[in-house]
What we know:
DhaL domain-containing protein; DegV_domain_contain; DhaL_dom_sf; glycerone kinase activity; FakA-like_C
Amino acid sequence: MLTGVTAAHVRRWASESVAAVARYREPLNRANVFPVPDSDTGTNLLLTLTQGAASIGRHDDVSLALSEFAGGALVGARGNSGTILAEYLQGLANAAAEFAGAEAGSVLDGVQLAAAFDRGASAAFRAVAEPAPGTILTAARSAADAAVTAVAAAPDLDTRSVTLAALAAARAAVSHGPEELDVLRRAGVVDSGAVGLVLVLSALAGALSPGLSGEDDSSAAHGSPSPDDAARNLAHAPGAGPAVGWPAADEAAKGVDDQVAAADEWLATAVTPFEAHPWRDETAALDPEHPFEFMCLAYPEADAGDGSLDPVAELRSRLADTGVSLVVIGDALESGHAPARVHIHTPDPAAVIAAADGWRLRQVVVHELSRGFGHRHGAGPKVNGDGQWSWIGVTRAPGLLAEIARAGGIALFSQDGTVEVNEFARALTDAGCDSVLVLSGIGEHAPRPQESEASPGEFATNLARAAKATGKTARIVAGDAVANEAQLAAALGHLPMLVTESFTRAESGLDAAWRALLPIPASGASAATAGRAGGDGHDLTATLTKALQPDDLLVVVADDSWPREARAALSDAVRAADCELVLVASGRTGNGYAAAIERL
């Protein structure tokens, strides 16, 4: 007889959730139409759950296990649905913490599990700036209401029965989604994120199956279940009745394999590939006014808010005008220690960073929604590591984030000039391909004078560690050279000519192009700072008067307070030298600049 949800159940639940979403990843991707049809919901949910599952330790504290699951999911969250799911899990964890108190090794009973479902649904709803019906939020609320109703009628109901009541309601909510959200109706699909939640609840029902107790923790003894095992658990999860053809798994006439096939058939119908619909072009248009997805972890500083709201709510309010599909999650009770996770679709990533002034930002990644994660370059499939590739652009200039993403890269922002191993790992994972080129405007990746060739510096070392952890091949373009933001901006112009080349040829071409760029240090600045010194611009103009040759292209990345008269003087000098000037806004406060010459 089940005695409640234990830490072992949470570990198995997390593992089976990963396997279930992995099995249906591609159908979920293909059916993804809301909030934008960028075909990545399955991938986002999988990456979110994978990091959550990997964060759970081996112990007997169910509250801690749920907190670890939620915390890992928050750090690993991808996309709109993944971010919402992470906050849903955090709500469950917060409820469990209150029930458990200080007693380690406690369990959740049916009434407490129902209350946790309710807390999770409420947390997810609050995290979304503009909640929409027919989505994962509706499925979560329907599931919670059904669970609460079930335990009100039968307070002694076991946890699996509570989960099955929630699951049945979530399935029904999925089926009614197109009636509530017009974009789903026109596309002829249900919401991918809502189906993802059904898979997660199905995995919980499977983890709570009789015989899987804390003493019989199969996930600990035998590793994660296979996708087929997860599908069997999915097929074995009965509810009050099938919704939209969802198989009634307890039908005696059907064996396990038949039930798995029936579950697959239901999902194939529920998440019919969007490409199959004749109105795809009308419905699938991405929002041209909000082309970039921006995600980050945000840590509040002492002056992050005005004190009228908790820090996470304050951040959500401040970001509301910078884009759409805004989701800001985080445990407000722990906001002084744990980060908030931010997801938004925006026309201007630099504006998001400016609105988050006073917050310490890490894992800031930006990509263009029309390309999706892992935009691939190169001629054909990867062969011996020399086929398809993708790239990352690392910058301290908020103004370059949109340019990097628009050129097809994963933009990785460094607020303080450092890049941690987990930040590289995040960007490498988002880059998709096994082979990744890294273009960096941060000069510190070059070896310092006191460092040997075997000790290439923190930037390169952290990248190497992240590449090893993610199984990627990652190379810094011109990694032994001094770099600045102007060189990075200029190098972006060479990418269109190299996207059809192999990884090796693309690396060689970008390396040659980068080394042909001449960084221009400001007066009195060392080569290491390469033009990041401040000034009124007259020092730069004097330097360029001597350095420029006819037909040169001068690229300058200037901070927001760089004097207008300096810009005018520079423009006059470039025109007099019969050259061309490209002036890019860095998006930073201050009066610094970076400059480089490309000799055409």
